[in-house]
Each structure stands twice: as structure tokens, then as C-alpha cells.
Amino acid sequence: MAKSTPGLRKKGNIWHIDKTVAGIKLRESTGESELEEAERYLAKRIQEIRSEVVYGERRERIFDEAAARFIEEYGHKRSLDRDIDTLKAVMPYIGDLALKKIHSASLDQYIRDRKAAKISAGTLNRDMAVIRRVLKLCVAMWRDEQGRPWLDNAPLLPTVQGVKRKPRPISVAEQDRLINGMPQYLADMALFALHTGLRDQEICGLQWQHERRLSGTSEIVFIITEERAKNDHERIVPLNSVARSIVNRYRDQSEFVFHLKGNRLERMNNRAWRKAREAANLADVRVHDLRHTFGMRLRAAGVSFEDRQDLLGHHAGHITTHYCKAEIARLIECVELLCGDMHGTELTLIR
């Protein structure tokens, strides 16, 4: 058996580097199972480090390396799983590209392939935002051993054009068909969305520790904290009698208001949602359309534009501490209009 190069050790089937080069500790996987290929990789890394440290040359980093650091450093992000999906999808297109060689046209084929797979322009633009974020961190945050940025300038990436999907509010009759085909936990979440206007992830992440009672009353609200809010602005969620009756059924069961066997639900748009949607002949209805329905029903009930904005969390400058008791009581009165006989607030949908 051939003797391996000093600094290479096999862990499982993969050779790993454990070596100090020019004063820098090199601890990483070669990604190779064959010794000859691992030695070639080690020689390349030694040359890169010596060029960088001894001769002051800057090592070229590839996008895959930047993506790996992003995942490691931003593991706390609420949307990390979604970001990882984006980065995995884009790797075959730019993963092996040097950061400085990435430009707007580098993603043309990725965009074409994703569009062919029926991925919406909105989803693609969110993918572009994740890629932009990684590249901007290479410019603004990450430095080599000489204090130089990984990338001098972040390239401009394209904005994907497409037909913007129009809101699809549902009528009371459609609501009944949809909810009747759901398991109880999902039906409760959908009805809660229709009475609060909360987003999918806001409902899934709702915790009892964020519940507050309005002093001197039986009214309760929930706080959507800054780290859980889409626009990073804390706000209150007033509950009407229907929403209160739903959450009260789940008390003392889990740290999360809505759960499945005590565990946090990842999303409402799951297999049960899609099955119920198909059974109700509402294939074009998304979870987010429940939020659109909430807003449009408030409008039909005569709720002012300003109050609708507050209830939907669209007022960027408003946070929880800016609301007084009287203002909260007024917002509760607004959402209470959606309870009881809803025919007065039902939308007439034109087909």
C-alpha cells in the first residue's frame, strides 16, 4: 500500500487535510476518495496559500465556497431552508465559477430552465435576492488573511419579468368547500388566517409566549415580533371572537399555538392543503389568498384604509408600543365585523 502524503488522513472514504502551511492551519475535506486526486488537491491548496500569504496574491474563491459560508453563518435565519433550496438549485450553473467571473448573463440558463419548469417570476426573483445577498457579503463582510474582500464589486443580477399573479379572494361558499375538505388542524389554521390576515409562516410560528391580554377586558392579541415579521416591524394581531375560539382550543398543548402532535408545522401549503384545494375545485387558490380575502372582506365591511393597513401590518412606522388601549379596541371592533353572518361582507366575484 502506497504511503500517503503527510497532512492527509482518510476519514471514512474521503481524504481530509490536517496540515499547517505558511503558519495557517489547513483543516478541510478534499472531497476525494482516491489518494492521487487528494494529493493533487492538497498540492493546489498549498500553492494557493503560499501565493496568498508569502507573495500577497489573492486566492480566487468560487461561489460554492461563498454559499457554504453563508449557510454556516446565517443558520439562525427563519428562511434558511428556503435559501438552501435556492443555492442547491443554482449550484450546477455557477457553483464552480470564480466569484469575480459571475455576471448577469451567468444566470441566463438557470432562469430559462426554471421558467421551463413552471417556476414563477416571483419565485425566481426571490432566488436572485438570495444570490445577491451572498455576493454582497463577499464584498462587504468576508475577508482573506490579508484583510482583502473576497470580491471587489458585486455584479448586477437580472430582475426576472413575468405576469404578476392577481389576488384570488374566496367567497364564503368557496371557503366552506375548502375548509370542509381539510383535517381539523389545517381547517383551524385556514379559518384563523381568514380572521387575522396573518401569513403562512406567521401562523406556523405563532407561540403562546407572544399572547397578551388587553387590561380590564377578556380581549387578547398576539405580538408578531421583529424577527418573525416579514418587514422586520413588530406589530399586534387583534383577535375577534372566531379567532379567539380557535386558539383557545389549543391551550396548554404545545409552545406553538398551531401544531401537529406538539411539533411546529413548517407550512400550511402541504399535501393536505393541496388535496382539499383540488377536492373543492379551487386549484388556483393559494394560502396567501386567505390574507387577500381578509383584506377585501374588511374593505367590504366598511373598515377604513388606515385601519386595514394596520391590521395587515403594512404601516412601516408602527410598532406595538405605539398602540394605546383605545386604538387596539378599535382594531378588535374592526375584525369583529367579520364574525357572525358574513353575507354582508362576502365579495361578489366576477368570472
Supply the CATH architecture of the largest domain: Orthogonal Bundle
If you average the pLDDT, what whole number results? 83
Radius of gyration: 26 Å
Annotated CATH topology of the largest domain? hpI Integrase, Chain A
Q: Supply the CATH superfamily name of the largest domain.
A: Intergrase catalytic core
Helix content range of the residues, please? 40-55%
Low-confidence segments, given as residue ranges, are: 316-321, 343-351
Q: What spatial order of strands do you see in the largest sheet?
A: 1-2-3
Strand content: 5-15%
Extended strand count: 8
Question: Mind explaining what this structure looks like?
Answer:
- This protein has 351 residues and is mainly α.
- The chain has three domains: 8-53, no CATH class; 63-140; 172-345, Intergrase catalytic core (hpI Integrase, Chain A, Orthogonal Bundle), CATH 1.10.443.10.
- It has 13 helices and eight strands.
- It has helices at 35-53, 63-73, 80-94, 108-116, 121-140, 172-180, 184-196, 200-204, 241-248, 271-279, 288-300, 305-312, 325-336, and strands at residues 8-11, 14-21, 24-29, 211-213, 220-224, 235-238, 259-260, 263-264.
- The strands form three sheets. Strands 1-2-3 form a three-stranded antiparallel beta sheet, covered by helices on one side. Strands 4-5-6 form a three-stranded antiparallel beta sheet.
- Strand 1 and strand 2 form a beta hairpin.
- Helix 2 runs antiparallel to helix 3 (80-94), helix 7 (184-196) packs antiparallel against helix 9 (241-248) and helix 7 crosses helix 11.
- It is elongated and about 80 Å long.
